[in-house]
Amino acid sequence: MGKNLIQQKRGKGSPTYRSPGFRFYGRAEHPTGNAETGIVKDIIHSAAHSGPLMFVEYNDKQNLTLAPEGIRVGENVFLGVKDKITPGSVLELKDIPEGTSIFNIESKAGDGGRFVRSSGSLAKIVAKTGEMATVKLPSKKEKNFSLNCRATIGQVAGSGRIEKPFLKAGTKFHRMKARNKYWPSVSGTSMNAVNHPFGGRSSHAKGRPTQAPRSAPPGRKVGKIAPKRTGRKNR
Known about the structure:
By secondary structure, the protein is mostly beta strands. Helices cover 7% and strands 24% of the residues.
């Protein structure tokens, strides 16, 4: 008898697990170009992002990017202008003073921004040495970036998002559905035997070991996949 496994269901491409990309506005990233002045045309909500986005018009082109805290429609933001350390402006790390709050940091120069993008998050430049800048991330960890990587000045808007509790499961359901996330996530040991290899017997008592061989077929490849070491580590 077959098993109705989630990992198989997602792989089929059924409407339940299809990406709702038609509701997304696009990629929120740094614009390309030289030193320019832009104007904020609109601030929008996107289901694909936790923080609000803004449309910025630079000369004859529009750019979609993350909105900083306190920005308003009609304000000016600057791209690559060294003496303009204002919220929403985009500069290379070498031109940003130490201790400045930044977000949407590029991993590699020109990739549009990869780090510190969720609502309310910010990072700070701790030090600059040689060709690298040390940045303190929201996790309190420090990471080195190239001085040629760009970042946005300020803090991502929407910092109060996590302060309001969901209160009930229905609200959480609609929130997860808007971003096409599978929820609730049920433990395999809590399922019936026909629904998961770890299911059956009594609740969390595993009916079989969690090690699966590399050659296991889809549906059986759950738990530890070809682990190099299992059990208690010898000291």
